[in-house]
User: Fold this.
Amino acid sequence: MPKSISYNKGSIVYFEGDKDERVFILKQGTVALTSVDIQTKMTANTFIKEPGTFFGIKSAISHCPREETVTVVEPTVCIVLTTAEFEDIFKANKPLIMKMLRIFSTELRQVHKKTAELLNQDSFVNTEQGLLDVAKSFFDDAKWRSCVGACTRLIKANPTYAADSEFKSMVKISQSHLNEVTRMEEEQKKRLIADGEYNPYGNNGLSTDYQDEADRAFDIPAFKRFAKTYNDGEIIIEEYERGETFYLIQLGLVQLVKCVNGTNKNLDILRTGELFGEMAILDNSPRSATCIAKGRVDCLEFNKENFEMLITGTPQIALMLLKLFCKRILDQKRRFKMLLIDDKHARIADVFCMFEENGSMPTVTLPEDMKKKLRIMHSDNARVYSLSVQDIAHWAGLDVQTTEEECSRFEATGRIKILDSYMIISDITDMRRIVDTKLKMMNRMF
Assistant:
């Protein structure tokens, strides 16, 4: 049962860093939420005075440490809920559902904006120029299927591009390469089928904490008509487009990338059971990222028109979406913190630490004979990630050449080993030590 607790002036409801999974509703009084800005290191205070205001939600339902310290400014009474009690109230209150989803959607978009600014993205790009930049970025990366898809979307938005000679050349070259890639994919598929090893998803069908919840929420026969399938490299939604649909991943991986000064930067990897595309619908704004299928992806596509009806009519979906927002906000803040590290060597080390902390990159299990061949010790601190140097460059916000140089330094000292499709980190605690040493130096500067 929810409890009513009285607090005296000056008392602390909870401290930053506490692991506390309670949710609070202000009944009367005033509290101050005090936090330290990641970028400026300045202290910021937010005062809560309006009765009925919730606080402590994000860290509670994400099972993460508190982001702020809450101090009582004047005698205060709060209703204290367990996460289960909060979830019951949330699912039963339709206005509360939409209000909170919009609040967290706005916060997530603000974090994305700060990240883009840190990566020196232009402050404003019109829709057509943005779509063209996305197409060119895929062309430069030799992502032929993504490039052809982006070009098709741009022509749909503005048919006059079809007559532009430079654009026509890009489309022709991309389509030619795509035809060859498709031919090679079909040949490989036939060989794998013959050997009994064909799996269109590869390792992309990995489950997440949201898988069971998603299965329960969408195990409705009527939803089958919303089913869509995308192949590796296909664009599902594109940055700068208007948001008209949102998606739930039934099986596979979806990569979120953002075009920054003509180069694609990784934002996130979404897995089975996760939703995406809902931000543009909630705040009626253009897409903030491009979502691409990694391997085959099966998903459900829902229209903007039935979004609110679906969310408020299926409370478990709304709750799942709220949890996803909280997780993404915390994950993006973690990446933003990593991007603030000015030392490139330490920043790359922090990429590995980030994967370790939030599980954003699945580990790879190597066969015993491979372990012996690579002389990997059976250590709890060793990690094997399915990563390339290009992947690290995207996550760290660095160019590929710089990333190659820094990774070579790590490899020369035996801290990592770079192979064709994965990287081996010999000791993740050593990476944490490198980052902590740099952060202490940076903190002394403020």
Q: What stands out?
A: The mean pLDDT is 85. Residues 40 and 446 are 9 Å apart (CA to CA). The chain has 15 helices and 15 strands.
